[in-house]
Design a protein that fits this description.
Number of strands: 30
Helix content: under 10%
Shape: globular
Radius of gyration: 20 Å
Structural class: mainly beta
Number of helices: 0
Strand order of the largest sheet: 1-30-29-28
Largest sheet: 4 strands, antiparallel
Length: about 350
């Protein structure tokens, strides 16, 4: 049994990030990617968000994450990218319609991409940009007495060294708190996450690691392991955590797939409704344009059955560019049609695609 998919091109526009949410509060899920949003449920009606800087075949938009920043009941967007060097948000105009205003949050240097997690359990995710050349930062939305966003953010610098390429989240220490994983080690969350800096543990070297670095107890022994793609080279691996009797931690590397390059975005979801998480990932088409190892190989998107560390690869799409699709720097997983199956929205320099999950078939 394997999951089957129905592929559809939404737009040949070459933006590399996307998200899914109800943009206009009509009760229907919409797709957002780069300069446009596509009205659900069929995603054929296209609306302009705003102009986005294009430079060197990239667009200055490596995240399209929904968050109600100003507390008006409409979801806005958090974004930022390498070239602009600025974390930003775009204000949803709401019922008035029209283009979205872009507002700077902070100038922080080149942003590889951005990830979001509720680090303190407040119910609102914090913003974690991956800035390889700068220390690790997160931003917390300031809310009013009613819990509504105020349009302002507090900044917390939790690292003291450059973050490197790669970012993930998971409880490494086993104390119930979410730690931050970087390419050269991990930052241990203190009891008060706003107490800075966090203690850094330089326990591994993951290279130009994926964003995110995925965490999961793969072996079932109660220890958090890592799943890491090479974002600008060949390789997809998992790192098994070991702790000896003296409490010393070590990491054992296992290959998952050495045959594919540019595994930049990784996500976990139960794609086949068997009660177990699968790994969904794929090649980011022309990640460094044509400068990475494997740049001219076929593109593809895959899901892996994890099987306790014996990863089993299944193809969602595969073939030459133009026939098959990659999955950009920030793809999205969500049930688009309400049938209980998780679908995939894949942006990239090869266009914006939807892969409808048709479920398990012989």
């Amino acid at each position: 049994m394997t999951v089957q998919w129905k592929k559809r091109l939404i737009d040949p526009a070459k933006f590399e990030a996307c998200s899914v949410f109800d943009v206009n509060n009509d009760g229907q899920l919409d797709i957002v990617s780069g300069e446009f949003w596509y009205e659900g449920p069929d995603f054929t009606k296209k609306h302009k968000i705003c102009d986005i800087l294009a430079i060197h075949e990239y667009h200055d938009d490596f995240s399209d994450y929904p968050l109600d920043v100003d507390g008006d009941g409409y979801l806005d967007l958090i974004t930022g990218a390498w070239w602009g060097g600025t974390l930003k948000w775009r204000r949803n105009p709401g019922a008035a319609g029209g283009e979205w205003e872009t507002i700077d949050i902070d100038e922080i240097g080149s942003i590889e991409t951005i990830r979001f997690i509720d680090i303190d359990g407040c119910g609102v995710p914090e913003i974690f940009p991956n800035t390889p050349g700068a220390a690790q930062i997160f931003y917390k939305l300031v809310v009013d007495a009613n819990g509504r966003g105020t349009g302002k953010f507090d900044k917390f610098v939790i690292g003291e060294q450059p973050s490197g390429h790669g970012l993930g989240f998971g409880d490494i220490s086993g104390n119930g708190r979410i730690d931050v994983i970087l390419s050269g080690g991990w930052l241990e969350q203190p009891e008060n996450p706003f107490q800075t800096p966090w203690v850094f543990h330089p326990e591994f070297s993951l290279g130009l690691a994926s964003v995110p670095i995925v965490t999961l107890d793969i072996t079932g022994n109660g220890l958090t392991d890592l799943i890491v793609g090479q974002a600008h080279d060949y390789g997809l691996d998992w790192y098994e955590q070991h702790v000896d009797a003296a409490g010393n931690r070590s990491w054992l590397k296992h290959e998952i797939d050495p045959t594919c390059s540019q595994y930049h975005d990784l996500q976990l979801v139960d794609i086949d409704l068997d009660g177990e998480l699968e790994l969904i990932t794929g090649k980011r088409y022309r990640a460094h344009n044509d400068g990475d190892p494997g740049a001219f190989d076929n593109v593809g998107i895959y899901y892996f059955k994890i099987k306790g560390g014996h990863f089993e690869k299944h193809v969602i799409d595969y073939g030459p560019p133009g026939e098959a699709a990659g999955c950009g720097i920030y793809f999205w997983l969500q049930d688009l049609n309400g049938n209980g199956l998780t679908d995939l929205v894949a942006p990239g320099k090869d266009g914006l695609y939807v892969f409808e999950n048709l479920g398990n078939q012989e």
